[in-house]
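Objective 1.3, modelling of assemblies. Example input:
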Amino acid sequence: MKHEIYNFSAGPAVLPKPVLAQVQEELPNWHGSGMSVMEMSHRGAEYTGIIAQAEADLRELLAIPENYRVLFLQGGASQQFAMVPMNLLAGGKAAYVETGIWSRKASSEAKRFGEIDIVASNAEAADHAVPRQETWQLRSDHRYCHIADNETVDGIEFDFLPELGDLPLVSDASSNILSRPLDVSRFGLIYAGAQKNIGPAGLTLVIVRDDLLGQAGPQVPTMLDYAVHAENDSMYNTPPTFAIYVAGLVFRWLLQQGGLAVMADHNARKAALLYGAIDGSSGFYRNDVAVANRSRMNVPFFLRDSRLDAAFLQEAASWGLLQLKGHRLLGGMRASIYNAMPETGVLALVDFLNDFARRHG
Ligand SMILES: Cc1ncc(COP(=O)(O)O)c(C=O)c1O
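Predicted structure (tokens):
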């Protein structure tokens, strides 16, 4: 039997099929221009139209308020681990909440630039629950507070939006941005590598409140100063033009699906199906994360008998279910079920999970 292919990669990850079809159609000759988007000057009329439309559609999707700037940058979310403190610390201290591998990477990078307080951590919690905000040791001299809204490796997602008053909330939203509506006005800055829920690798999205711009000291390289990119509409240098174009098509596709509230429903249903299969397997599979903080995007799970891991992956691949191997630091399995993963893909995975457990349990 020939199976449809479903790609559960954590990133670079699956893109919507209609977007890939449109890219294919427009690749050699964009809208009769005689050029591929890849070949266009970023300052020409065609391309400035493409980037402006991408930004407008993103603003509509997230209802981004006027006083926030959208920046299309490079360097990945990893570069944001440095850019955030370089721009926002301004000689002061910052608060970091650690909930997994990525937020710990963010805080250790920030320590190169100043004093960082780990105000809460789930490191000692057996269920990996996100520490409740009441326990965070915030201080009035913190310049900002950093969280990772969704931990891609550990599969841990915030189930609440921190309420910080005047303290700017900075969020690494790399793996759950656009998966549900977000009240942008509650954040100082949101960043995301594009290659999970936005588009191709090479693009990094930053949404920043405009009063936070212009704090970088003179030692900060020009390319790492948010204000420079804001003043130049992400065109201080050549932006990742093709990745922005594809991201723009994804934004358009999301609007056509009905926007982020609709995507949130889809994503909740997909996650419920998958966690339901794991929890219903009588311990053949397990996920160790507190139910309230189980990620809707990245679902790590372990087989009771890890000696079956290789057979699991091999058989899954023969069913067309690809890239299910867990992160090298965690082991086990991980299924990433971003916006572009259709429910049929999750149902196919659930069928396989049940079948494999029945045969090997
Ligand atoms: C939550 C999170 N933060 C940061 C990163 C690092 O992103 P990049 O590879 O774009 O630097 C990743 C990548 O997987 C991630 O999932």
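DSSP finds nine helices and 14 strands in the chain.
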